[in-house]
Amino acid sequence: MPRGKKRQPAEVSSGSMADIAFLLLIFFLVTTTIANDKGIAMRLPPKPDPNEPPPEVTKNDKNIYKILANSGDQLLVEDEPYKAGMDQLKQDVKEFILNFGSPGEEGIQIYNSLPSALKSKINQFGRRTDSSDDPTECVVSFKAARGTSYEVFIEVLDAINGAYNEVYAERVGITVEEWLALDREDDIQNDMYQKARQGIPRAISIAEPN
Amino acid sequence: MSKFKKSSNTQQEIPTAALPDIIFMLLFFFMVTTVMRETDIMVKQQLPKATQLTKIERKSLVSYVYIGEPKNVSLFGNEPKVQTNDNFVEIPDIVLFVNQEKDKLSEAERDKITMSLKVDVGVKMGIVSDVQQEFREANALKVLYSSIKRAEE
To answer: A47 and B53: CB-CB below 8 Å?
Structure first.
């Protein structure tokens, strides 16, 4: 006669499951670095073609805003030593872009498309004849020496980009933060982006240092 | 007899049966968002501060180049060096690195590669512009000067 054996219930105790999960959780908590890579995006000019001579600079001198940095981290802006801070530089670049000294046909069209708040600001700046003709023409040229520190380079680049971003943001009536956060995958936001950029190219030229 | 008799037979324990599920949920969240740091950065990295920052659009299109003074000065000296992946490279070899990174991408996306420059604030522009010349040589024209958001005063 077989012995009456009581069957053990076939269950795995799941009481420690939470502990195991906790352990894993803590491991991932510690190793997590949420990616937050941000920075100033730029586009480099393409490599010059060795078969072709470098293109002649045909732009009128007054349409080029020249910023030079020497190896002592001193700035030379429009051939004058520059002592004011970066906020002032940003303001100066902005005035230069929106000068409309003697706008061409395209320039007049852009001027007419601007919101009235921006128009009154432009007239406040004075529309000097010795500064840029219109935004389609102007170029901001920045040249740093080999000995310039990277920190100064970024500060100046940030100021120039800031000037352009302020112009774009004001053109479509949003804040600079909103402008920078525009998602170009989204159709509506992309339209806004294109509308702001239309006719005012972000013409920043970074010259090779010597 | 008091009207407000203590009901002593109610259960006072919080059911803990769902606790593992909650923990698992958190676990999965962190598992998904975790990016293991795949490279050991061997150069000093104090990124510059800037205000006009843009986010990168697609992480898969970004390759990183680190420039700075080596952390281990006794072994590598104190001249700024360029690091890609896990080792130091000489300036002329950057083209090779860019091409390797481009090969990882599909044909259509190769021109969209973005080089993220993580440069220490103490570095001079000379080495940075040399690296940029190499990027132009390798036809990787989109660069991102990685920086930290400056708090507005």
So the answer is: no
Q: What angle do CA A197, A206, B149 make, to 5 degrees?
A: 70
- Residues contacting residue A71 through CB under 8 Å, at least 6 positions apart: A145, A146, A147, A148, B124
Closest chain B residue to A151 measured between Cα atoms? B121
The pLDDT tens digits of the residues spanning B76-98 come to: 888 888 988 888 888 888 999 99
Contacts 24+ apart (CB under 8 A), B102-108: B102/B138, B102/B140, B105/B60, B105/B61
Which chain B residues are Cβ-neighbours of A41 within 8 angstroms? 54, 114, 142-144
**Which of A94, A120, A98 is closest to A176 using CA atoms?**
A94
Find out if CATH 3.30.420.270 is the number for domain B49-149.
Answer: yes
**How confident is the model over A123-149, as pLDDT tens digits?**
877 777 777 777 788 888 888 888 888
* Chain A hits for B119, Cβ within 8 Å: 150
What are the sequence ranges of the domains in chain B? Answer: 49-149
A161 touches chain B (CB under 8 A): yes
- Pairwise CB contact (< 8 Å): B116 & A144: no
Per-residue pLDDT tens for A188-208?
888 888 888 887 888 888 887
Residues in chain A, how many? 210
**What is the predicted pLDDT for the residue at A98?**
83
Residues 6+ apart with CB under 8 A from B116: A37, A39, B56, B62, B63, B64, B65, B143, B144, B146
Q: Are B56 and B116 in contact (CB under 8 A)?
A: yes
ipTM confidence score: 0.75
Mutate: best of B36, B51, B56, B146, partner A, most A CBs <10 A: B51
